[in-house]
UniProtKB/TrEMBL annotation:
HAMAP family: Fapy_DNA_glycosyl. GO terms for biological process: base-excision repair; response to oxidative stress. Its EC number is 3.2.2.23, 4.2.99.18. It comes from Paractinoplanes tereljensis. Binds 1 zinc ion per subunit. The lineage of its organism: Bacteria, Bacillati, Actinomycetota, Actinomycetes, Micromonosporales. This is Formamidopyrimidine-DNA glycosylase.
Length: 282
DNA sequence: CGCGCCTCCTGTGTGC
DNA sequence: TGCACACAGGAGGCGC
């Protein structure tokens, strides 16, 4: 499930393989793959053909490819999206949605997406920061992320701490897996109310978020199945380092208590019953 | 306006 | 063996 470390791994691969190359052709194989782009496929294609990719940028779980035109390709992988570099002769993937070829005749860029929660769009004049991403907060790996402002906003919210970590307008890039991992490291239950967190506790949590994201980037991300791979089709190996996510019934790596699984926000949450006691409810 | 629930989508695994 | 259903979950939209 692509979160910040997986998207950053893809970004690095794309930067290496497509920066500086000029787009020759674009094929759209599925209508849902083009997101929020009202003018349609023809316009999407026309704005991209003949353009040179200048760079590959990321904020949170969003990627964008600034073009020499000043526009940008904006992408989100959703649940199952992949951006793959493939030789022209490679067989089409079952869920191939968009294909880019380049004027140098080298490897193609393919957007492949089983569940079609992901998609690409063209952002008019979005090379610097696409409008489509303007509402997304900076992520904690961004050197301009404001720790003080984050702590103040977090503590000012009237919600549960895991909900806040998943709020991409507060802090971006954290999804279900890394939220659970950061909460485990911080010894906090996800249902803890944000307005009851002390400043130091909020700062410790942020430090743990940053630490787990950093370690996962080094590992190339977390792959449970074939749905997340880098641009060369390779899996990340951070799943070996997980302490909470997906470990229901297995011993906590700190205290040995079996990890519990709870339903939260219509999805699974994993935590240690002993290290992360549930807050008292009133 | 803040908060939280619902929905989109498809392949895989499980239980009867 | 086959069918029904739960599950995976990011994020936009909408209702309270």
């Amino acid at each position: 499930m692509p979160e910040l470390p997986e998207v950053e791994t893809v970004r690095q691969g794309l930067a290496k393989w497509v920066a500086g190359r000029t787009i020759a052709t674009v094929e759209v194989h599925h209508p849902r793959a083009i997101r929020r782009h009202l003018p349609g496929d023809a316009h999407f294609i026309a704005m991209l053909q003949g353009r040179t990719v200048v760079d590959v940028a990321r904020r949170g779980k969003y990627l964008w490819l600034p073009l020499d035109s000043g526009d940008a390709i904006v992408g989100h992988l959703g649940m199952s999206g992949q951006l793959l570099m493939q030789p022209a002769e490679a067989e089409d993937e079952k869920h191939l949605r968009i294909r880019f070829t380049f004027t140098d005749g080298g490897p193609q860029l393919r957007f492949v997406d089983q569940r079609t929660f992901g998609g690409l769009a063209v952002s008019d004049g979005g090379a610097e920061l696409p409008d489509e991403i303007a509402h997304i907060a900076r992520d904690p790996m961004d050197e301009l992320f404001d720790d003080d402002a984050f702590v103040a906003r977090l503590r000012g919210k009237h919600t549960e701490v895991k909900r806040a970590l998943l709020d991409q307008t507060l802090i971006s890039g954290v999804g279900n897996i890394y939220a659970d991992e950061a909460l485990w490291r911080a010894r906090l239950h996800g249902a803890r109310p944000t307005d009851a967190l002390t400043g130091p506790a909020a700062r410790r949590l942020l430090a743990h978020v940053r630490e787990v994201l950093g370690e996962a980037i080094v590992a190339g991300g977390t792959s449970f199945d074939e749905l997340y791979v880098n641009v060369n089709g390779e899996s990340g190996y951070f799943d070996r380092s997980l302490n909470a996510y997906g470990r229901e019934g297995e011993p906590c790596h700190r205290c040995g208590t079996p990890i519990r699984r709870e339903q939260f926000m219509n999805r699974s949450s994993f935590s240690c019953p002993r290290c992360q006691p549930r807050p008292r409810t009133h």
